[in-house]
From TrEMBL:
A GO BP annotation: nucleotide metabolic process
Gene Ontology MF annotations: dTTP diphosphatase activity; UTP diphosphatase activity
Coiled coil region boundaries: none
Purpose of the protein: Nucleoside triphosphate pyrophosphatase that hydrolyzes dTTP and UTP. May have a dual role in cell division arrest and in preventing the incorporation of modified nucleotides into cellular nucleic acids.
Organism: Bauldia litoralis
Cofactor section: a divalent metal cation
Residues flagged as site, Important for substrate specificity: R15, T80, Q163
Protein name in the entry: dTTP/UTP pyrophosphatase
Main location: cytoplasm
Superkingdom of source: Bacteria
Reactions accelerated catalytically: UTP + H2O = UMP + diphosphate + H(+); dTTP + H2O = dTMP + diphosphate + H(+)
Length: 207
């Protein structure tokens, strides 16, 4: 008899895990991948998000191939990229990068893309690309300096986290909020249900 369908979240992002938990999904395994996330020359933000989500899926599958107990597992990966026009902003690791991002984001609209890949046990990859438009207020010198001092930008695409202090910078958002945080929940839920993952069953637990 086939075992219960398992889920591997191939991510080291605590935000992605929290977002999945929010819809009652608890992955059987967390598996951070490590890939080169540098954009190619002239690569558009949307293409970068798609490519990196796919490369994370491939890296996770290679790590899983010797794990018999996860042979029957779905594997979920995502990558979030902030784009200003045709330019990909970095996932800020240094304060100078974050400062450059804030200057570019100040007083204008940008787009946040998340590429999502769900791989089924037979190796089939189902992919989504989700886009949200975000408009920031003009950031004063104090906004920028205080935000940099907060450290909240660290490890975040585009050097900000909308779920934290930077929520106060957002004038307008068009599209999915959870997409900006790192995992668009409508699309994730649709992909998981499409592969037969029993999301609603989990909602009944505890009642
Ligand atoms: C724009 C934005 C990004 N982010 C985060 C989500 C992601 O963790 C990160 C983008 O980097 P990613 O490379 O997408 O993800 P990651 O390296 O953190 O995790 P993994 O590859 O292991 O799945 O930025 C926020 O938390 N809030 C935001 O508002």
């Amino acid at each position: 008899m086939p075992g219960r369908l398992k889920l591997v979240l191939a991510s080291g992002s605590p935000r992605r895990l929290q977002l999945l938990n929010q819809i009652g999904v608890e992955p059987d395994r967390l598996m951070p991948t490590s890939i080169d996330e540098a954009p190619k020359r002239h690569e558009l933000p949307r293409n970068l998000a798609k490519r990196l989500a796919r490369e994370k899926a491939e890296a996770a599958l290679a790590m899983l191939k010797d794990e018999a107990e996860l042979a029957n597992a779905l594997v979920l990966t995502a990558d979030t990229v902030v784009g200003v026009g045709r330019r990909c902003l970095p996932k800020a690791e240094r304060i100078e990068e974050a400062a450059t991002c804030l200057r570019l984001l100040s007083g204008r609209s940008h787009r946040v893309y998340t590429g999502l890949v769900l791989t089924s046990p037979d190796g089939q990859m189902r992919q989504r690309l989700v886009e949200t438009r975000v408009r920031f207020k003009r950031l004063s010198r104090e906004d920028q300096e205080s935000y940099l001092a907060s450290g909240e930008w660290r490890g975040k695409a585009g050097g900000y986290a909308v779920q934290g202090l930077a929520g106060g910078f957002v004038i307008k958002m068009v599209g999915s909020y959870t997409n900006v945080v790192g995992l668009p929940l409508y699309e994730a839920m649709t992909l998981l249900l499409g592969e037969g993952y029993p999301i609603h069953f989990n909602w009944l637990k505890g009642n």
